[in-house]
């Protein structure tokens, strides 16, 4: 019968694959082993234009009250030149670099050196040491889930400073907004480049690495599956949530503080943005253990789009919705 014939052919293919062993094609997991022309063109487009698109959005808010069409109209009509827009853009400052370096260092300390205690007294919260999914090489990584704790500690210190210590102004993020953007860009490129070099020369697990032979694709999509420094510092988990998502609510609070400073009150829309985006951020950290089983951790490798995207896009563009 036809069914018996198909079953026989399937069995023959399985036996052939078993005999060939290593000659069998490797399974696809997370990203490609080979790069087609469309993928390469897409990668080159993103590498070239994604930074410019983010800059355009932020520049539009800074110089054109968040109008996305006015800059283009002014340029096309000859009312402005690119040099005019660029000259009005704040440059990188030592102050912003110091703020950003201190911020990232503080989040590294909270992530790597402060074990979670929230799961011990918050009912229903899953924190502490948790296992991730099985990697293609058969590795089960362990993670210290302490994002909610890091968020709570950070915001307690933020409000303590705003209402009691007064070491810095709560408008500090607003006042250094675009210079901080440059800092996030620099760190994103540094981390992405380091991750690629690490994947070539000292990977955490060589069996979980993927190489296509195409520099641009490997840089964009990543080589290592779970790059780590030491036993616990996982690049994916840290750079996905800590510098960017913890900062997300602080950025909104800083803008609210600036609104209070300038106008003497905080608008309903600003309150709504702070509340709704705060719920989103808290939802992420409440479910951080669940996040270990999502596509980002289970399938994606750590490359430019992961490193730079999380450091720059998550906090710096999502918070434009005010």
TrEMBL record:
Catalytic activity of the protein: 7-dehydrodesmosterol + NADPH + H(+) = desmosterol + NADP(+); cholesterol + NADP(+) = 7-dehydrocholesterol + NADPH + H(+)
Keyword Cell cycle annotated: no
Topology in the lipid bilayer: Multi-pass membrane protein
Disordered: region residues: 1-23
Enzyme Commission number: 1.3.1.21
A Pfam family matched in the record: ERG4_ERG24
GO biological process, one term: brassinosteroid biosynthetic process
Bias (Basic and acidic residues): 1-15
Record InterPro entries: ERG24_DHCR-like (IPR001171), Sterol_reductase_CS (IPR018083)
Biological or metabolic pathway of the protein: Steroid biosynthesis; cholesterol biosynthesis
GO molecular function, one term: 7-dehydrocholesterol reductase activity
GO cellular component: endoplasmic reticulum membrane
Enzymatic class: oxidoreductase
TM region(s), chain numbering: 37-58, 92-114, 148-165, 177-197
Compartments where located: Endoplasmic reticulum membrane
Superkingdom, taxonomy of origin: Eukaryota
Keyword terms, alphabetized: Cholesterol biosynthesis, Cholesterol metabolism, Endoplasmic reticulum, Lipid biosynthesis, Lipid metabolism, Membrane, NADP, Oxidoreductase, Steroid biosynthesis, Steroid metabolism, Sterol biosynthesis, Sterol metabolism, Transmembrane, Transmembrane helix
Record's function text: Catalyzes the last step of the cholesterol synthesis pathway, which transforms cholesta-5,7-dien-3beta-ol (7-dehydrocholesterol,7-DHC) into cholesterol by reducing the C7-C8 double bond of its sterol core. Can also metabolize cholesta-5,7,24-trien-3beta-ol (7-dehydrodemosterol, 7-DHD) to desmosterol, which is then metabolized by the Delta(24)-sterol reductase (DHCR24) to cholesterol.
Similarity-based family: Belongs to the ERG4/ERG24 family.
Protein name: 7-dehydrocholesterol reductase
Origin species: Meleagris gallopavo (Wild turkey)
